[in-house]
Write a structure and sequence with these properties.
Helices cover 38% and strands 4% of the residues. By secondary structure, the chain is mainly α. It has a two-stranded parallel ribbon with strand order 1-2. It starts with a strand and ends with a helix. It is globular and about 45 Å long.
């Protein structure tokens, strides 16, 4: 199994994905540029990610669910408005990255 960190929006998200040892990270170029401008920091062993909303309030935890990953993927209902928004933003970020590299 591999871990994909997606919907990275800020340097703290990126560092959190590194701390969790994600094998693949997708982030818009502005986050990679922010990481480079900060001299490519790595999270230390004492790194703690705190999820905050735009107003600086702590995010509420998503309840943990145990899933049977041996079931066929079609058996999972992944529909959610935030999933749809996340996919749309991922596509927009990807297109933006392609434009910048052209």
């Amino acid at each position: 199994m591999h871990v994909l960190a997606a919907s990275i929006r800020h340097l703290n998200h990126l560092l959190g994905s590194f701390a969790l040892q994600a094998e693949l990270v997708t982030a818009p170029s502005k986050v990679w540029e922010e990481w480079a401008a900060a001299s490519f920091p790595s999270p230390g062993t004492d790194f703690v990610y705190k999820g905050l909303d735009k107003a600086g309030n702590e995010l509420r935890a998503i309840p943990y669910q145990t899933l049977d990953l041996n079931r066929p993927w079609e058996g999972f209902d992944i529909r959610h408005e935030l999933t749809t928004k996340g996919i749309q933003q991922f596509v927009a970020d990807y297109k933006s990255t392609l434009k910048q590299s052209a």
